């Protein structure tokens, strides 16, 4: 098994590295990385339904879709991400208990009574410290998970706070769980760097491992993946399963609006607005202007700007805030 410690904190690069290692290496791999503050959504999720869009934008938090399914997770420098990539027999590749067992064993070796939970997670005293997911490629499987060591749990909660009634879809929904940090359960305080070092030493000791550094040549391919996939709106937002958005608002003018959008592959395919506003022509124009527009702030802003000139019943910013 090759053991790789990422020297990067960029979430786009680290998630692209997982795909690159999965699809281009034959060896078994144990990959560790720590991302800067970011939100990682599952492959089959509706991104906008999972995040607090306003908070995320105001705080410049990157949102990245990963290869594997499952729910949305929050990453920051207090969270460690582990990834096992191995080969095996098709149909027998996904095994959550197998790949979480080394992590549980390590935690027990440093005095923490962790155990495998019922939702493919790792728990301490009933609280989640690790969410896990898998992705299969041919005869290879990538199993990865989080390890909340000393994460900003307040930011985690705020980033993932959303309106469950705003979206109607068949996308995979995240299950919110009570969480805790590993650091709170240590007998003696330690840094995240020391914790990573101890985890690395444990894996090396208990498995036949050799170190590998991702080369500059590797990063050429990884950065292509970042540019063409992992850092694109099409992948991170547009890939979401089709959904319907429904939002009721009262504008500053006192007029009420009920907005319904149907979105497929990131594109608005239907738009309907009910309102007690007097300018019905404006409402019809607004509905028409949103059709075939990406459900994305910049795109909607460009398509609708001229419609709001001289219209006092609804401001463009009020519309945009309702749609995200």
TrEMBL record:
The keyword Nucleotide-binding applies. It comes from the Bacteria. Keywords: ATP-binding, Ligase, Nucleotide-binding. GO terms for cellular component: cytoplasm. InterPro entries: aa-tRNA-synth_II/BPL/LPL, BPL_LPL_catalytic, Lipoate_protein_ligase_C, LipoylTrfase_LipoateP_Ligase. Its EC number is 6.3.1.20. It catalyses: L-lysyl-[lipoyl-carrier protein] + (R)-lipoate + ATP = N(6)-[(R)-lipoyl]-L-lysyl-[lipoyl-carrier protein] + AMP + diphosphate + H(+). This is lipoate--protein ligase. One of its GO terms (biological process) is protein lipoylation. One of its GO terms (molecular function) is lipoate-protein ligase activity. Pathway: Protein modification; protein lipoylation via exogenous pathway; protein N(6)-(lipoyl)lysine from lipoate: step 2/2; Protein modification; protein lipoylation via exogenous pathway; protein N(6)-(lipoyl)lysine from lipoate: step 1/2. Residues 24-211 form the BPL/LPL catalytic domain. CDD domains: LplA (cd16443).
